[in-house]
């Protein structure tokens, strides 16, 4: 299992970013996948999950602003993030079970 996140960066409050997670060694179409994040000095926080059947669910803190999706043909997971807030600043990881990638930094600041 290998996971590689990308797409992070610096964005102003209210802005948008789309994170990608390229998976290899398994098929995301048959796996429940998660996005989690870790803010500076804090523990790991669950953000969103997508079931093999396509059902998605979200933490209350991101509901209505973030959208998880996947492209099975590209074996890639996405997280579309809109209306970003400073509180969304964190390293974002995609996760399959106990495996996660190296993360991508998202900084929301003016």
Any overview of this molecule?
The chain is an all-beta fold and 110 residues long. It has strands at residues 2-6, 9-11, 17-24, 33-38, 44-50, 56-58, 66-71, 76-81, 90-96, 99-100, 104-108. Strands 2, 4, 5, 6, 9, 10 and 11 form a seven-stranded mixed beta sheet that branches. It starts with a strand and ends with a strand.
Radius of gyration: 13 Å
Strand content: over 45%
Kindly report the average pLDDT value: 97
Largest sheet data? 7 strands, mixed
Order of secondary-structure elements: EEEEEEEEEEE
- Quaternary state reads single chain
The helix content is under 10%
Q: What is the distance, rounded to the nearest whole angstrom, between the alpha carbons of the first and last residues?
A: 37 Å
Q: Helix segment count? A: 0
**Overall shape:** globular
The computed structural class is mainly beta
Number of beta-strand segments: 11
The parts where pLDDT drops under 50 for at least 5 residues are none
